[in-house]
Specification:
heterodimer; A: about 180 residues; mainly alpha; Rna Polymerase Sigma Factor, Chain: A; B: about 140 residues; elongated; transcription (chain A); RNA_pol_sigma_r2 (chain A); sigma factor (chain A); RNA_pol_sigma70_r4 (chain A); RNA_pol_sigma70_r2 (chain A)
């Protein structure tokens, strides 16, 4: 959670663009990453990320924290935007043809990964999971979010999230053997 | 690959970052959007509240004047048939009269039917007497 986030959210709700700008700076990489891992194309990820922040800004006055970080709300909007995107386009992504340049991934990423399990393989394996399993894995292990926060984003109980996480990990292990 | 290695691999996807040009362009667009949407929001809020107050005032005046019946009876409005209280009363009275007339007709027809039945039974009695007389005459002749 961003330091002083509650105050920034309150100021943004009053229409302060600078406050929203600070929230944007903090959450943009996270939301973009979440979307990109799910759609696998940089241009689509940029479009969906843009929609997410516009929707958030337009609905800012109606936002209610309810004790959760502002990011939970943004992830919910992003998640729904990705679902809408697939509903409209109905296209399948062939991850084999997606290059580092297309994804906009820093070259250092592939150097950090184990030689056998390169980033393409990881992304391909994540894409083979169902939507909610993808969401849980990304939020838990890429974004280090708490179970309670993930539960709020995906509209499930904490226990359900733990079960989904366990199942998703097992599936990935099987596919990456 | 075990679970620990897998989680490590997933964690390394943190390296994915948006293009700087995209990030700054979107931020600038949001700043412009803010001004428009704020103005629009304030304008729409003001219109909504004005409209609500207007509707409330009109409703109050309408009720104070006595509702639909008295409003339509006024000199400025033509009296609509079926809506006015007196018209409704006269229509109800017409219907009542029609019902009474139908009941009287039914009573008359039922009395008439009783009379007809009595006449038929009298006729049948007379015919049986005639037959008896004829029979007696025939018997007398035969003697």
């Amino acid at each position: 959670m961003l330091e002083g986030e509650e105050n920034l959210v309150e100021e943004a709700k009053q229409g302060n663009p600078e406050a929203f700008g600070q929230l944007y700076d903090h959450y943009l990489p996270k939301i973009y990453r979440f979307v990109l891992i799910k759609v696998a194309y940089r241009e689509q990820a940029e479009d969906i990320t843009q929609q997410t922040f516009f929707k958030a800004w337009r609905s800012m006055k109606r936002y209610q924290s309810k004790g959760y970080p502002f990011g939970s709300w943004l992830y919910r909007i992003a998640r729904n935007s990705v679902i809408d995107h697939y509903r409209k386009t109905k296209e399948e992504v062939d991850i084999e043809n997606v290059s580092e340049e297309i994804l906009g991934v820093d070259n250092t990423l592939s150097q950090n990964l184990d030689s056998k399990f390169e980033w393409e393989t990881i992304l391909k394996s994540i894409k083979s999971l169902n939507d909610i399993e993808q969401d849980v894995l990304i939020m838990r292990f890429v974004e280090d979010m708490q179970h309670s926060e993930v539960a709020r984003v995906v509209d499930k109980s904490e226990n359900a999230v733990k079960v989904i996480q366990h199942r998703a990990i097992k599936k990935l292990e099987e596919r990456l053997k | 690959m075990n679970e620990q290695q897998l989680i490590k691999q997933l964690n390394s996807l943190k390296e994915i970052r948006p293009d700087e040009g995209f990030a700054s362009t979107l931020k600038a667009q949001l700043a412009i959007e803010e001004m428009d949407s704020s103005r629009f929001y304030l304008l729409s809020q003001s219109l909504v509240s004005s409209f609500s107050v207007g509707v409330a005032i009109l409703l109050f005046i309408f009720i104070a004047l006595g509702g639909v019946a008295s409003t339509l009876k006024g000199p400025l409005f033509p009296t609509l048939e079926g809506v006015d209280k007196n018209t409704l009363a006269s229509e109800a009275s017409d219907i009542q009269n029609k019902i009474d007339k139908s009941i009287n007709d039914v009573d008359y027809l039922s009395e008439d039917r009783k009379l007809a039945r009595a006449n038929i039974s009298d006729t049948s009695y007379e015919s049986s007497e005639d037959e008896e007389i004829d029979q007696l005459l025939e018997d007398a002749i035969s003697y």
